[in-house]
From TrEMBL:
Pfam families: Abhydrolase_6. Transmembrane segments: none annotated. InterPro entries: AB_hydrolase_1 (IPR000073), AB_hydrolase_fold (IPR029058). Residues 49-333 form the AB hydrolase-1 domain. SUPFAM superfamilies: alpha/beta-Hydrolases (SSF53474). It comes from the Eukaryota. The lineage of its organism: Eukaryota, Fungi, Dikarya, Basidiomycota, Agaricomycotina. This is AB hydrolase-1 domain-containing protein.
Length: 355
């Protein structure tokens, strides 16, 4: 099942899909394919970007960043980067996937974000289902993740059949040692559990975002995207008695539970060095460390990656919420990583990129 539409900025187009891996995997997987008509390349080496969203977010969060990427590419500044298309999928209890699977999740808020997302990503890319007639194993895949969305990209290599990426781009990765993860998990989980979960309307929700000290730092285009794509009308299976207004597609209980399940964050930390031996891995950090201290970034590069990263860039004007605060800056940094892949043949970190 698919539908298509057009986005006005930089002529980006999208098509929506619903991937059904049952009975191999019980959860439906909504996905969107994005492309630019004048940039889409059928070159077999052209890139297919696989975009993974953070915990508590939704696949359409990538749209502002992708629009900026396609706009930069169409300006002629990156003529040697060939992109066929980009794909974004929802984590199983996030975004449209939370709606498609809500009756399976009702009563089970402790569903593990990283494990279910990794499994969903794997069955989707391995073609273990119906609804998307593409053999991704024949594509030149580049994985791009943000925050906890980096975890599935690191751990997917542990699943069979193997899905091969040509490189990974990890933005503000939530990949931490056991001690680091334990220190952050409680604060993140308790904060998510207290999050406002309903509003009278999307207009009120947008007004709330623009008045909130933390959320008003988000780019205006991301704020609009959030109220359009992260919210749904009431009632829902989780809130059957709430008859009016809008609420989160990903219930706050599910987001909070995902932060408590930090085993995947630690597994990715332990496995990262092996991934860095197999393919180029690029890191992008916000220039203003907030949620994740700069010392954690340094540890990730020097200990977890063992210094074998391909490149590292910082985006000015952003902290951990890099995709929300600086979609244009993130887009430029991603293109620099892709350009780096073209100009490099060895995975040797540059001295000037180190923390």
């Amino acid at each position: 099942m698919s539908s298509s539409s057009s986005l006005d900025t930089a002529e980006m187009q999208f098509e929506a899909y619903l991937f059904d891996p049952r009975p191999k995997y019980p959860l439906l997987i909504p996905a969107k394919r994005y492309w630019h008509p004048s940039l889409c390349s059928n070159d077999p080496e052209a890139l297919t970007l696989i975009c993974i969203h953070p915990a508590g977010q939704y696949k359409e969060l990538w749209e502002p960043t992708l629009r900026h990427m396609f706009s930069l590419m169409s300006s002629g500044l990156t003529t040697d980067i060939k992109v066929r298309e980009a794909w974004a999928i929802d984590a199983p209890n996030h975004g449209d996937s939370a709606i498609a699977n809500e009756y399976l999740f009702t009563g089970y808020p402790s569903s593990c974000y990283w494990e279910d997302y990794t499994r969903s990503l794997h069955v989707f890319l391995a073609g273990l289902g119906t609804g998307v007639d593409i053999d991704f194993r024949k594509r030149n895949l580049v994985g791009i993740g943000v925050s906890a969305g980096c975890v599935p990209l690191v751990l997917i290599d542990t699943y069979i059949p193997t899905v091969e990426f040509s490189s990974l781009i990890l933005a503000e990765p939530m990949i931490l040692s056991p001690l680091q993860a334990g220190n952050l998990a409680f604060d993140m989980s308790s904060g998510a559990a207290r999050r406002q979960y309903k509003w009278k309307s999307r207009v009120e929700a947008l007004r709330h975002m623009r008045a909130n000290r933390r959320l008003r730092t988000w780019a205006p285009e991301v704020q609009v995207s959030y109220v359009e794509n992260a919210l749904r009308d009431l009632p829902t299976a989780l809130y059957p008695e709430e008859r009016e207004g809008v609420t989160l597609k990903c219930p706050r209980e599910y987001e909070a539970a995902g932060y408590r399940e930090f085993q995947g964050i630690v597994r990715a930390y332990d496995y990262l060095r092996f991934v860095c031996l197999l393919l180029p891995v690029h890191f992008i950090f916000g220039a203003q460390p907030d949620l994740i201290p700069e010392s954690f970034h340094a540890d990730m590069l020097r200990v977890a990656a063992e210094g074998r990263y391909a490149s590292m860039y910082r985006v000015q004007g952003s902290g951990h919420m890099i995709i929300q605060q600086q979609p244009a800056g993130l887009a430029a940094a991603v293109l620099r990583c892709l350009q780096n892949n073209i100009s490099r043949s060895l995975i040797i970190p540059r001295d000037e990129s180190r923390l």
